[in-house]
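sorry for the late reply, my laptop died twice this morning and i had to redo everyting from scratch. anyway the thing you sent over, i finally got around to it. pasting the sequence first so we're on the same page, its 235 residues, then the predicted structure underneath. double check i copied it right bc i was rushing
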Amino acid sequence: MKYKRILLKLSGEALMGENQYGIDANRLLQYAKEISTIVEQGIEVAIVIGGGNIYRGINAEKSGIDRVQGDHMGMLATMINSLALQATLEKINIKTRLLSAIVMDQVAEPYIRRRAVRHLEKGRVVIFGAGTGNPYFTTDTAASLRAIEIEADVILKGTRVDGIYTADPEKDPTATKYSKVTFTEVYEKGLNVMDLTAFTLCKENKLPIIVFDMNKPGNLGKVIQGEEVGTLVEF
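ok and here's the structure:
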């Protein structure tokens, strides 16, 4: 097994499935089953989910909502997704703990690093909700920060595209995929992997990133085994 402890970053938009917004129950169950297969192999799994299927704080200003207020609304959206994923995982008998960066005693434990690590050591899937708890930081940054704090081996960014391309493959049919790329190349070529704050955190702490297609069944397991799936960002 190539990795022992991973942080899986899922986008909120991916949970929509074929819907225009909200949560697709079938997509959620698919993700839960993928996660369960690696948990059963003894991999320690932490997860961060975005909230873009429900609310995007960064778009709030267009509707006249203050950016800080909008970002707090986005944090609550990530908690809705986190609770949905927790419920789905537990339905298939995977033990979980949801830790929130903002205090929500009735629905989640407060984020405490040592507690999170202890849950992972006990084989529980740890879901980190509410981003970093601070406005102006994305869930990508939350994923990078939490991965570094829990000393994860890698960040797995599960998206709807199968890696990093020279251009947006949905817009440019001539775009070609990288199997491996260095952090420096990403900076120099202006490739879109994560927002710059999140990406720089990974670079400075020597944390590799793998971008892969989470919607293709079996991909998550292949990544864990060290197969060449998606794009590896390394040093």
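The chain has a mean pLDDT of 94.
thats about all i looked at so far, will dig more tmrw
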